[in-house]
Specification:
Length: 152
Amino acid sequence: MECRVYQSYSAEDTFSFGVQIGESCQPGDIFLLNGDLGVGKTVFSKGIGKGLGITEPISSPTFTILQIYEEGRIPLYHFDVYRIADIEEMEEIGYEDYFYGQGICLIEWASRIEEILPDNAVVITIEKDLEQGTDYRKITAEGQFDGKMEVL
């Protein structure tokens, strides 16, 4: 498994990294987005949306579980499964249509649904390191990703 580490010194850097990934995405790519509250997961997600050519506002689907954006070059299926109590809820949503479809899946709090996650998912973890400054983020990407991901 590949592991790449990126350094972000601002929200703009985190957004730009998301844009790079969005521009390189291919249908079927799945990204598991990990990080504490306030680390920049939504900023990163907005960057992916921009990289896919989505112009409508991207927001975290905390209460809806799934937001669908179809206007870009590839559909984006943005999940926030924090409130999922059991896997049956994912089955009710029809998760397989999204996980194995022709769009991009971005899944926040994916550890809550580990048993149904595809093996080809790329895990992206965003972490703060206050010793580096309040805006610094360490972004780690683990898995096989064919797209271009440049070091920030």
